[in-house]
Design a protein that fits this description.
2 domains, 220 residues, Arc Repressor Mutant, subunit A, two-stranded antiparallel ribbon, alpha/beta, Rossmann fold
Length: 220
């Protein structure tokens, strides 16, 4: 595997320089640029075209997760890893919801960080070993929340959601269920509201993720 090229953003000068030296020690990765000024990160990204961007979570005047979301919204597509001292579950959740490709701790060994970088380049989502239990808890909570949302739907709404998962139009659903087109539209609107979704496409994805597709029998 070729050397992943890294841009490192952290406002603590000694940590930033020390981490760069440690990461490059075995030649597995290359830190092509680093800065303590988040406002200048786009200049570095455009100049160096890195494979991975590493962002500190808390920096003066800038939140790493907010910065990450701004970068993704403007088209930067490289994996972004949050590197922090925070072991708070809410910070992990916020980072992953915001689109982070990884959540690493500054207490990790350098070789663990290098491995995480290499995995991120391959498209994996990486989380510090110390955060694994918190990640499992988040996933459990997400599953529980999804179950609660599904349970809020009526049988007819879940039936229509299953048809959305198959990509059927409102007219096709109306024909198959022998109800009016307007009734289907109303049910779809209720489904979106109950599931906190904004489009039928999102509803279809949600349904597929929760196996409400072909063969649906009205029960999860």
């Amino acid at each position: 595997m070729s050397q992943p090229r890294i841009v490192l953003v952290d406002d603590h000068t000694l940590f930033r320089k020390g981490l760069a030296e440690l990461l490059e020690r075995d030649g597995a990765v290359k830190v092509v640029a680093m800065t303590g000024m988040p406002s200048g990160v786009t200049v570095l990204l455009d100049e160096h075209q890195p494979d991975v961007l590493i962002l500190d979570l808390n920096m003066p005047g800038e939140d790493g997760i907010n910065l990450m979301q701004q970068l993704k919204a403007t088209g930067y597509a490289m994996p972004i890893l949050i590197l922090t001292v925070s072991e708070a579950e809410e910070d992990l959740a916020r980072a992953l919801r915001g689109g982070a490709n990884g959540y690493l701790l500054k207490s990790m060994e350098p070789d663990e960080v290098v491995e995480a970088i290499q995995r991120a380049v391959k498209g994996e989502t990486v989380v510090a070993p110390a955060m694994t239990a918190k990640l499992v808890n988040l996933l459990d909570n997400k599953a529980s929340s999804a179950d609660s949302l599904l349970n809020s739907l009526t049988h007819r709404e879940r039936e229509i959601l299953a048809h959305l998962a198959k990509g059927e139009s409102n007219k096709a659903i109306a024909r198959q269920l022998d109800i009016s087109y307007d009734t289907v539209k109303l049910h779809v609107r209720h489904i979106l509201a109950k599931l906190n979704l904004s489009s039928r496409v999102e509803a279809a994805v949600f349904a597929v993720e929760h196996r409400l597709g072909p063969g649906f029998d009205g029960k999860k």
